[in-house]
Write a structure and sequence with these properties.
Layout: H1 9-24, H2 29-33, H3 39-52, E1 60-62, H4 66-74, E2 82-83, H5 92-100, H6 112-137, H7 166-173, H8 186-198, E3 201-206, E4 211-215, E5 218-219, E6 221-222, E7 225-226, E8 234-235, E9 241-242, E10 244-245, E11 248-249
Parallel strand pairs: 1-4
Antiparallel strand pairs: 2-3, 3-4, 5-8, 6-7, 8-9, 10-11
Length: 256
């Protein structure tokens, strides 16, 4: 019986990137300047995200801007919210800048999700290898759907289904002292976040009894850079605003 193909890191990341870009790269100016929060869609997506991560669904607590959300989280734990968007979409750098707006610091690229997804891939490779070994001993074993990529008709990468080499697989497995107790194909883990981002979620934090949600602010972009001549390029629902020209944040006094 054919087992599960241990795909390369590049192929698995491309699966996620394709879905993320299909969801957001077609947004126009109106979509960015007047973001719509689809509360029920975000709630459903985050429930799926928590479920695939092995956590129980929790109520969502929304904040009107990043400043108030960060203050709330820091009053409870020494953590920062996580971005919901995938770092390989066209507007990712603008989203990074908008999040740090007001700090007047050098541009920071947020790659936390890519790092987390890489770790997810490593755990998945371990689980796939263990299953294929068990399958060789017992061909009657049923393929676990959680270890398989999504099969919903979405176009796959050109190299989908091609296994990694034995030597590279051995090197990856060497990172882990013991196999993970639970693993899921990364595409299944990250698709709910893509759907939450489409619904208007920007950053989030999973607390003990709730999920802190921060909506995407209104953004003015030119060639995927924050830019506006006649007003703020970042405008939060709370009224907090930040000014950018050609991707460079302006000091508040320079906008007067």
């Amino acid at each position: 019986m054919v087992g599960i193909v241990p795909e390369t890191h590049r192929v698995v990341m491309e699966r996620i990137t394709r879905r993320a870009r299909a969801a957001s790269d077609g947004w126009g100016a109106a979509d960015l300047r007047k973001p719509r929060i689809d509360g029920p869609a975000v709630k459903a997506a985050m429930e799926r995200y928590l479920t695939v991560r092995g956590e129980q669904p929790k109520p969502l607590r929304w904040f009107a801007d990043g400043t108030s959300a960060r203050a709330y989280i820091r009053s409870r734990a020494p953590y920062e919210p996580k971005p919901v968007y995938w770092p390989e979409i066209a507007i990712a750098r603008a989203l990074d800048l908008a999040w740090f707006a007001g700090a007047m610091r050098p541009p920071i690229k947020i790659y936390a999700n890519l790092t987390d997804a890489t770790f997810d891939w490593e755990k998945w490779i371990c689980a796939v290898t263990n299953f294929n070994t068990a399958l060789a001993r017992d061909p009657a074993l049923k393929l676990p759907s959680d270890l398989l990529p999504l099969a919903d008709g979405f176009p796959e990468p050109d190299a989908a289904g091609l296994p990694i080499t034995g030597s590279f697989l051995a090197a990856v497995l060497g990172y882990h002292i013991q196999p993970p107790s639970r693993a899921i194909h990364p595409e299944r883990l990250w698709t709910p976040l893509i759907e939450a981002f489409t619904g208007g979620l920007y950053f989030f934090w999973i607390g003990p009894n709730e999920v802190v949600c921060i909506p995407r602010p209104a953004l003015w972009l030119t060639e995927n850079r924050l830019h506006r001549e006649d007003g703020p390029a970042v405008l939060w629902p709370s009224g907090e605003k930040h000014f950018f020209r050609h991707g460079i944040e302006l000091c508040p006094q320079s906008t007067l």
